[in-house]
């Protein structure tokens, strides 16, 4: 590894930003708006149909200028170019990072180790299309000759969260006579409850695993095989009821899946960046190959915007920089994502992995400890449900929580006045967060003095509102790529590697050590707390 990374805190503009933060931290959004009537229109970008309003952030023009300067000093331009060019920027794993190539149109040339990867990507997409069309038309028959009607994707982490999110997000566009479900957890309950009402003769399993060695997925795949064969009684049935999505052909064969029924991808697609690879097969089956192409086109359009737009007009750059501003300068710990659209209910969970596994790091690419805060905790729920739950803390708690509100002008399910109610809430929440309600206003309303402190809203709570015309596959692609590149931007500034995830290893290793101990009869050599927990489990299961 030969990367030389300057920790963000050693970049000249970092110090300037610290001083600038001291100067602006007490400015109130009320005053910023009063002083500048054009702020609302000026601090907004309209890119690819996403109206991105960042006026309600605790920034001045100077803040944005300095943040862009910081991005330049951190070498963001070079990092972007290196990623798109297929350089091995995932240095700890020695891999290129080319999820952007997955969305590239035919004819683009992108090289990894001297080989153009684009033709291979389109070959897999074509194979997926043929398969998806067969399933959608009822022409993919199960072992007994019945058409497949149920699709169960088995995968975890990056091989689950993106597909689940996309399926839920695009349900409106999905073929409704197919039942599409997802099993991820090694907890047997997940498999049992997901398959409980399905007929094995009509069920197809997509085993989605880049490595095809992941404990949870392999355990679920084995149980799926048993469940299927218990009803169909012939191992030859596996060929009609199982397909694999993987980079590991030999493990796929070992499991008993014919590699003719395997959809491949490549080591330069990171798990959490893989929903536009073959890992998206369930999405394609749900919305059809044309819909999936629209999703890819949306990603590609945002990829191109990120690659070419000047930083101060660049949506992912601005979004990433705002995150750096709050995390590293204001000390904000979390970032709320609040989609005002029921279809996006899994979007926060998807972003949790994308962002927290990517920039939840404590060392730079060189391995030096950082002396600043990195990755925020992402969380959220669809509005308006969150309003009746945790918004209290966002409005009046002691923590600073920047919010991303995502809303659509047109409902996919117009119903009476519902959409106006929904939208009035998103507009109102961002307004309330920013401007609050003062003691003066409360007293003018005649609020009793003892209640004034309880009813006061300080305001000055930052939010972005993204207003988009309509949720479509293309728009979902744009949103996915927007967040992917915002995270990349943050990684570049903080000097951390967004494409590895060593932090998930230790728990896996220890679990592998504990598995045989749970059979009982072994000497336990953990700390006293872990030993006691294992003993209690053994006792409860009478394994002494
Ligand atoms: C994502 C991670 C991780 C991975 C899962 C599943 O970036 O690498 O979440 O996607 O561990 O891995 P497999 O696809 O190999 O089963």
Report on the structure:
- Helix content is 47%, strand content 11%.
- A 6-stranded mixed β-sheet has the order 1-2-13-12-10-11, with helices on both faces. A 5-stranded parallel β-sheet has the order 6-5-7-8-9, sandwiched between helices. It has a two-stranded antiparallel sheet with strand order 3-4.
- 44% of the residues are buried.
- It binds glucose-6-phosphate.
- The site of glucose-6-phosphate has 14 residues, from loops.
Task: Tell me the layout of helices and strands.
Blueprint: H1 12-24, H2 29-35, H3 39-42, E1 44-47, E2 50-53, H4 61-73, H5 76-84, H6 99-102, E3 111-112, E4 115-116, H7 118-136, E5 150-154, H8 161-169, E6 179-183, H9 188-195, E7 203-208, H10 215-232, H11 238-241, E8 242-246, H12 249-255, E9 262-264, H13 281-308, H14 315-330, E10 334-340, H15 347-359, E11 377-379, H16 391-396, E12 403-408, H17 418-435, H18 439-444, H19 452-455, E13 463-468, H20 473-494, H21 505-517, H22 528-540
Parallel strand pairs: 5-6, 5-7, 7-8, 8-9, 10-11, 10-12, 12-13
Antiparallel strand pairs: 1-2, 2-13, 3-4
Helix pairs in contact: 1-4, 4-14, 7-13, 8-13, 8-15, 13-20, 14-20, 15-20
Bound molecules: glucose-6-phosphate.
Residues 156-159, 209-211, 214, 217, 270-272, 357, 501 line the site of glucose-6-phosphate.
